[in-house]
Specification:
614 residues; mainly alpha; three-stranded antiparallel beta sheet; 5 strands
Length: 614
């Protein structure tokens, strides 16, 4: 089998090389849920005359419809109501479909059978409300005055996670003005508003909203002027976070809302800010097997960092590796972002996910870039940027000992009761097993912090405290318990814990128990909705590689489970069936999943290298 492993490593390296751009970066598609495609179609219809791109995107969206009439977020989900509403509406509005077509009628039947518009996700309802097809008052009830609450308040706008804030800002403006587009081509969706009894708002949400409105009423000043001040503060918040390409924080989703929020604030459709934002979103286009797709954000920095590290000590040409390193060095942030509000002594030094991202770094991208630029591996020139990045990562550690994604201290549980779908996952940015485990692994393996270092000890304590009873850990940004367990196990092992440690024993037992009959590993996207491990019953390359990496980090020798896993991984990389494209990246449970085109190169290469070195 060793010859097969060596051959596969060589093949992976050759294929990776074809994805390197002239600037040294590696460019792969970040293929996510189709909301970014449908939203882009709506923007193009409203603001431009780019019918060619509308047709390209519409062709891909239409091709993904199941024969039963619905659209899925991942294979086997039996249809997503929100995705189906979004696709149906976009295809009708842009003229790609007519209501009388069989495909449209099938989609309409599915929407009605699933409860209509009222049963859709909040973000879908917001899109419909913008187009006058759903009533605004049924959505978020937070007043725009919320932006004026001081930091000393029990809750404030800046207590939300950065990802939530950048979406909430424009949504508050839109909800406040009850903004509606006026266009004769907008399809009438009133037949899908099913008159169901409204769901009772839970007690925590009612209490939260009551407190916010009571606090808003105490703000000093004339009501009209206070209201205008709050709206202007929200507009300023957005404008200050527009990236060089015109997008808001480099996300399609937040930029989509920002554009309509600016229209609600009196900006014209032809305003340079709006037109530049649309142009920036066009650069998110990538080619998939089904046609052109709009990525919610490009993953260039993330992919380049992970691949540059994975390619260490391989036959990959040194000159091309040097170009990748140079790209990463240029991508390091030198601007202050919102993270400074809770890490006041920190200096810029992180990395973001996208190449257009200059003010919104995250811990995972930063440790990935630092792995690729570890001093001593290529050049002493890396020492200064490495130390800046390392100091930034250490400054982001939460008080509980774990690491968040974007900002430390965003853990106010009250905010999870905001009456909007997904608030429990997106409203705050708590410590997670995947971020904590991967950061611990970096600090131990690459930064070489000693076992006694306080950051190391706190992270170990956090991981042990947050292990599930079955030995697994939940991962937020990947699917799901395999991802979290892999990150935690590799982190704890790198820190110095061995196979005799009780936490690692339980974790190894979990991984080996969920190994598939074919020797690989596969976990369903349902896991992050059920909050427990749900087997896929088929194996995926990235999840198989994560499980193998965890086992190798503990055993550091070949075992029967590892041997079977390697054989399965080699078969998967040759077969490339539907499991090769199964989304193993996560964003928002039940709403946003990612098929990283790079993952079937990165993680198999890393684990095959480790196996070959045994």
């Amino acid at each position: 089998m060793q010859s097969q492993v060596d051959e596969t490593i060589g093949q992976l390296i050759k294929e990776i090389e074809t994805h390197q751009a002239p600037d040294g970066s590696f460019r792969f598609c970040f293929e996510n849920s189709l909301m970014s495609d449908t939203n882009m179609m709506l923007l193009l219809k409203t603001l431009t005359g780019d019918d060619h791109l509308i047709q390209e995107l519409g062709g891909r969206v239409a091709s993904l419809q199941h024969p039963e009439g619905y659209w899925s977020l991942y294979p086997g989900d039996n249809g997503s109501l929100s995705a189906t509403i979004e696709a149906y509406f976009a295809l009708l509005y842009t003229g790609f479909w007519t209501k009388t077509e069989e495909a449209a009628q099938k989609a309409a039947h599915f929407i009605l059978a699933q409860g209509g518009l009222g049963s859709a996700h909040s973000m879908t309802k917001i899109m419909l409300a913008i187009h006058g097809q759903y009533p605004w008052p049924n959505l978020m009830h937070l007043p725009v005055h919320f932006i004026l609450f001081p930091a000393s308040s029990p809750i404030s706008f800046y207590d939300f996670s950065s990802y939530a804030r950048v979406h909430m800002g424009p949504i508050l403006l839109l909800t406040d003005s009850r903004f509606q587009l006026s266009d004769k081509d907008i399809p009438d969706m009133s037949r899908f508003i099913v008159r169901n009894l409204p769901k009772p708002e839970n007690e925590q949400s009612r209490s939260l909203l009551s407190g916010i409105y009571q606090a808003a009423s105490t703000i000093a000043g004339l009501p009209h002027l206070v209201h205008q001040q709050a709206r202007q503060r929200l507009v300023t918040y957005m404008l200050q976070r527009i990236e060089g390409d015109g997008t808001l924080y480099s996300y399609v989703s937040s930029t989509f809302y920002m554009i309509y929020a600016l229209l609600s604030a009196g900006y014209s459709k032809q305003h340079p800010l709006i037109q530049k934002a649309v142009s920036g979103l066009k650069t998110h286009r990538c080619r998939t097997d089904n046609g052109w797709h709009i990525q919610n954000s490009t993953s260039t920095v993330w992919d380049t960092a992970l691949l540059t590290h994975a390619l260490k000590d391989t036959s990959f040409p040194m000159q091309k590796r040097t170009k990748a390193e140079a790209y990463l060095l240029k991508s390091q942030h030198d601007k202050y972002g919102d993270w400074i509000l809770t890490a006041k002594d920190a200096s810029p030094g992180g990395w973001g996910f996208s190449d257009s991202n200059t003010i919104h770094p995250d811990v995972d991208d930063t440790t990935a870039a630092l792995r690729a630029l570890s001093p001593g591996t290529s050049s002493d020139l890396f020492k200064e940027p490495f130390n800046r990045g390392l100091n930034w990562v250490l400054a982001m550690q939460n008080e509980d000992g774990g690491w968040p994604a974007f900002e430390r201290g965003k853990t106010n549980q009250l905010l999870t009761f905001v009456p909007m779908d997904g608030a429990s996952h997106a409203a705050i940015d708590p410590s997670t097993a995947d971020l904590t485990g991967r950061t611990l692994e970096f600090l131990s393996s690459e930064a070489r912090l000693p076992f006694q270092h306080s950051a190391i000890q706190q992270a170990i304590r956090w991981l042990k405290k947050n292990q599930q009873t079955d030995g697994s850990w939940y991962g937020k940004w990947g699917i799901s318990f395999l991802y979290g367990t892999w990150a935690a196990v590799t982190g704890l092992s790198a820190a110095g814990l061995n196979e005799k440690d009780s936490a690692l024993k339980k974790a190894v037992s979990f991984i080996e128990q969920v190994q598939n009959k074919d020797g690989g590993w596969g976990e369903s996207c349902l896991s992050d909705q059920e909050m427990q491990y749900v087997p896929l019953d088929s194996s995926t390359p990235s999840q198989t590689a994560w499980a193998l990496d965890a086992l190798l980090s503990v055993h550091q020798q070949k075992t029967p489970a590892i041997e079977r896993g390697i054989q399965s991984l080699l078969r998967q990389l040759k077969t490339k069936n539907w499991t090769y494209r199964y989304p193993t990246g996560a964003g928002l449970p039940g709403n946003f999943y990612v098929y990283y085109h790079s993952y079937n190169y990165i993680w198999p290469l890393i684990v095959l290298k480790k196996y070959a070195s045994l």
